[in-house]
Design goal:
Layout lengths: L7 E6 L5 H10 L6 E3 L2 E6 L1 H10 L5 E10 L3 H9 L12 E9 L6 H20 L4 E3 L5 E8 L2 E7 L21 H11 L7 E3 L6 H10 L21 H13 L9 E5 L2 H14 L5 E5 L14 E4 L11 H17 L4 E6 L2 H4 L8 E7 L2 E9 L10 E3 L5
Parallel strand pairs: 5-6, 5-7, 9-10, 9-12, 10-11, 12-13, 14-16
Antiparallel strand pairs: 1-3, 1-4, 2-3, 4-8, 7-8, 13-15, 14-15
GO molecular function, one term: methyltransferase activity
GO biological process, one term: methylation
Organism: Pedobacter fastidiosus
Length: 397
């Protein structure tokens, strides 16, 4: 099975509502999208081409390479179909693999049972062909097989990523309630920031937004921070392909940037976490760190950029009076200190959003985990100007 050289269906998954930004990333890398849907895109490429995507994509979660599509109604159907695959040409018989799945089948009450059927089929095939079986378990740091099974339609994929791509590898200290790196990238893309004007991130928390902005501005890809992917544990892998892509990533980094990224937080600990994560990412010299109340965050007046808040949301139902005051203060700060900028507040609490006191020119839909969120956009003109409110909709399947 020449998976590294044969084209097949490839599904790149992402969290809900990140698909539009993932599509832009994929096409910018020169790939043709066959189909797009709410949680990803479909391509027709080789497994070798998946290496470049794994190293470059910021908004993706997994990159799945299809090795077989089939009909299956019962667990026995699944077992028999999976056992026919030439696993001895894909997985080292002395190696290790794990199984993940996305199952919606009336005959399966738990996905773990479907995973077990796939694992048993692989192991039984390998024992018959090689007289020995690979180890298996839940760790995703070696070969990973993914099952997609909806009603009678099933697909077996090689998960080329393994551990999720949504975490970019530099955040060694998470901080309190951090925003996932893939979501932070999507948020920055949604602002249409030009990567040259100031990027202001008050209430920065663990600094994910500010660090991702610095990574995007300097063209530092996530692949620079990771040395293990699941594709490395598939038979036929040529490590020179990986190192060639990494050399490209290193060469494309913009080392000297004339740029202001400012991250502030009232918590000294939060700013220290941000500083240390930024150092791991190699962008600590690009970001200005400030320990202060957000109202005292320095905002350059000579260039107009973006200011992005990701405040606490509180409980979705019911509003805390302290947060009401905070949201009002954010509105006042943007109105008085950020004239000429475009302001953004990312929140999962629509009741608190009403306390900001500004008219949003746009509401951009996101999910943070399972929480339905909006990023509110404010055009902060020197004078007063009211814009019609619009709602952006993600592309659906």
């Amino acid at each position: 099975m020449q998976v590294f050289h044969n084209k097949s269906k490839v599904i790149i998954t992402c969290n809900k509502r990140l698909s539009p930004y993932l599509q832009d990333e994929v096409t910018a890398l020169g790939y043709t999208i066959e189909r797009s849907f709410q949680t990803g895109v479909e391509l027709n490429i080789t497994l070798t081409e998946c290496i470049k995507l794994n190293l470059n994509l910021r908004c993706a979660s997994q990159i799945l390479y299809s090795i077989k599509s089939f009909k299956a109604i019962t667990p026995d159907d699944l077992y028999n179909e999976v056992k026919e695959i030439e696993w001895e040409e894909l997985i080292d018989f002395a190696g290790y693999f794990s199984v993940t799945s996305n199952v919606d089948n009336p005959n399966i009450t738990t996905p773990l049972f479907a995973n077990l059927k796939v694992k048993d089929a692989i192991v039984d095939r390998m024992k018959e062909k090689k007289g020995i079986r690979p180890n298996s378990g839940s760790d995703a740091n070696k070969a990973v097989v993914h099952l997609y099974w909806k009603d009678a339609e099933a697909d077996i994929f090689i998960d080329t990523s393994g551990e999720t791509l949504a975490k970019h590898g530099y955040r060694k200290i998470p901080g309190k309630a951090p925003m996932l790196e893939a979501l932070a990238s999507g948020v920055i893309y949604a602002t249409q920031w030009d990567k040259k004007s100031p990027f202001i991130n008050p209430m920065c928390g663990s600094g994910t937004l500010a660090i991702e902005a610095a990574l995007i501005a300097t063209n530092r890809a996530p692949g620079l921070y990771r040395m293990n992917y699941a594709f490395m544990h598939i038979l036929g892998y040529n490590e020179e392909e990986f190192f060639a892509e990494r050399r490209i990533l290193k060469d494309q980094v913009i080392k000297n940037v004339d740029l202001k990224i400012i991250a502030s937080d009232i918590s000294e600990d939060a700013v220290e976490v941000t500083r240390r994560n930024a150092k791991t990412a190699g962008v600590d010299t690009i970001i200005e760190f400030e320990v202060c109340d957000f109202e005292l965050t320095p905002v350059p007046e000579d260039a107009k950029g973006v200011v992005v808040f990701n405040p606490e949301y509180g409980e979705r139902l019911g509003v805390h009076s302290k947060l009401e005051t905070t949201y009002k203060r954010m509105g006042d700060f943007m109105k008085s200190k950020c004239k000429g900028y475009t302001g953004y507040i990312f929140t999962g609490n629509p009741d608190l959003a009403k306390k900001i006191g500004l008219k949003a020119s746009k509401k951009i839909e996101f999910y943070n985990g399972k929480l339905d969120c909006r990023m509110l956009e404010y055009e902060l003109y020197d004078g007063s100007r009211r814009l019609p409110q619009t709602e952006t909709q993600p592309e659906s399947e």
